[in-house]
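Title: Comparing notes on inverse folding

I've been comparing how different people in this forum approach sequence design from structure. To keep things fair, I'm posting one structure and asking everyone to reply with a full sequence. Here's the target:
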């Protein structure tokens, strides 16, 4: 077999060709790497411009996806601001809220204080209108392998029982488990709504293969200990409501309705272990009661509710009659068959007259009761305080509160003591009924008092009863599974009460926190 060898000149030419080809390939690769970011940036700019133009024309359904793709290609604060604005105009306020939180964090890292403040203000404005949805999973429904999804996205068991921000609109809740029939429910939610969906115990699926019984000698498996979830920025702002926050509320894998981490997440979220049960046979499994679900919040119904706050306002006393300390030093006279009788005064036969009095008061209010449901609280309300210029208010009674979005509306029946320092107009004494005819039909007569002996003002007290209409605005809603779960409320309670001699009007306002 013959072998051929290239000559020296041919070998040099081949080497030069290989080197030149390698240089050309390296140059082409470097040029491609240099051009690629520039192309992506140019595409992002073009998409952003198109999205803004469509947003100006009101074509939000076309605008938002283009701006979102622009942000994916080139994540910048200006693009994120445009995306959050587009979603807000589109009505996806929970999605926009999370994006404003992300924008504030990005602006803080960039040192852009003006943009950070703007993002915080926009997010705070939306937070008051966020709808919230609670997915409750009772113990009877929490079977092994249960998966609960919201709009097709699995909801971590740590988020069961917690109110989560969600975009307005219709959402589908479903539940499934091995050997069980699938369950679904569609819920419509509007701005400011607070709704709850309870997952029922899933019916057994007769067509499913029976679950194998564990080996007799196998040791019992210890349930996995729940792992504390690392709160992300959006979940912390929502009071740990969202179980796992992402970029938007309605989309799969992104939003307050999603459980996967999104742009606002600062750390992974780990699920708490679900309940485990051992089934030896179909009958034993049916009779077995599932273990409590870790992470479930017990705050929604059947729990105590406590509210406390500082109160202040105006107290108007229309108590026109009463008594004061030294009435016994006065006397009055009236006609009797024998002539004229001078009778001494006491609190039984004499009373003083008073002018109306109005003055500010400061104190506190409290509510203690039971949450019949997340929107209905029944209990007892108390209101008390000091009236500047002399006087007090100490009343209380049964109270009922119902929630309508951001407002709590309630009715309270109140009874108690009221005192006011008012101007004394005089003292009158009663004439016995059998002597009225001898005194020209008069039932009372003016008490004769030396000039200057009557006090200018005196404290008049009375027992009063009535009620109030309680209107509370939710300033901040902070639900969680801890004892701090509750809401900051601004409450106005116009109150009307009837005293034994006159009326009392109270116009209090209070700032308090309701633990529930």
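Reply #1:
Here's my take.
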């Amino acid at each position: 077999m013959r072998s051929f060898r290239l000559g020296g000149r041919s070998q040099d030419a081949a080497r030069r060709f290989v080197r030149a080809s390698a240089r050309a390939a390296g140059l082409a690769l470097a040029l491609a790497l240099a051009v690629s970011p520039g192309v992506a940036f140019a595409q992002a700019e073009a998409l952003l411009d198109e999205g803004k133009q469509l947003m100006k024309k009101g074509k939000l359904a076309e605008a938002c996806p283009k701006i979102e793709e622009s942000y994916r290609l080139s994540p910048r604060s200006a693009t994120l601001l445009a995306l959050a604005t587009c979603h807000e105009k589109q009505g996806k306020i929970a999605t926009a809220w999370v994006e404003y939180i992300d924008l504030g964090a990005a602006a803080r890292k960039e040192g852009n204080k003006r943009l950070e403040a703007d993002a915080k203000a926009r997010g705070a404005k939306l937070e008051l209108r966020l709808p919230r949805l609670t997915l409750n999973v009772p113990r009877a429904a929490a079977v092994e392998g249960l998966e609960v999804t919201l709009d097709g996205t699995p909801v971590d068991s740590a988020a069961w029982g917690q109110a989560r921000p969600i975009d307005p609109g219709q959402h589908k809740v479903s539940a499934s488990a091995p050997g069980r029939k699938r369950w679904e429910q569609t819920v419509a939610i509007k701005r400011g709504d607070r709704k709850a969906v309870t997952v029922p115990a899933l019916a057994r699926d007769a067509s499913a293969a029976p679950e194998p019984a564990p080996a007799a000698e196998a040791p019992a498996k210890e349930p996995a200990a729940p792992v504390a979830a690392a709160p992300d920025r959006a979940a912390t702002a929502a009071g740990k409501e969202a179980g796992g926050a992402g970029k938007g509320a309605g989309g799969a894998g992104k939003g307050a309705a999603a459980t996967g981490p999104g742009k606002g997440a600062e750390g992974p979220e780990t699920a708490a272990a679900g309940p485990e049960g051992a089934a030896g046979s179909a009958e034993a499994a049916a009779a077995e009661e599932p273990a409590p679900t870790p992470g479930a919040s017990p705050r929604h119904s059947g729990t105590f509710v406590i509210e406390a706050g500082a109160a202040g306002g105006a107290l108007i006393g229309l108590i026109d009659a009463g008594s004061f300390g030294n009435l016994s030093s006065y006397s009055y006279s009236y006609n009797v068959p024998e002539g004229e009788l001078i009778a001494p005064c006491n609190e039984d036969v004499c009373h003083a007259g008073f002018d109306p009095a109005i003055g500010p008061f400061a104190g506190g209010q409290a509510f203690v009761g039971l949450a019949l449901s997340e929107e209905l609280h029944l209990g007892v309300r108390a209101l008390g305080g000091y009236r500047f210029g002399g006087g007090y208010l100490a009343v209380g009674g049964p109270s009922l509160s119902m929630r309508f979005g951001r407002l709590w509306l309630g009715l309270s029946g109140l009874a108690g003591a009221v005192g006011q320092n008012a101007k004394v107009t005089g003292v009158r004494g009663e004439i016995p009924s059998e002597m009225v005819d001898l005194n020209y039909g008069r039932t009372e007569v003016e008490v004769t008092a030396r000039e200057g002996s009557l006090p200018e003002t005196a404290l008049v007290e009375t027992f009063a009863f009535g009620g109030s209409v309680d209107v509370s605005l939710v300033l901040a809603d902070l639900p969680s599974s801890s004892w701090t779960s509750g809401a900051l409320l601004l409450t106005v309670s116009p109150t009307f009460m009837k005293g034994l001699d006159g009326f009392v009007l109270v116009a209090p306002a209070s700032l308090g926190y309701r633990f529930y």
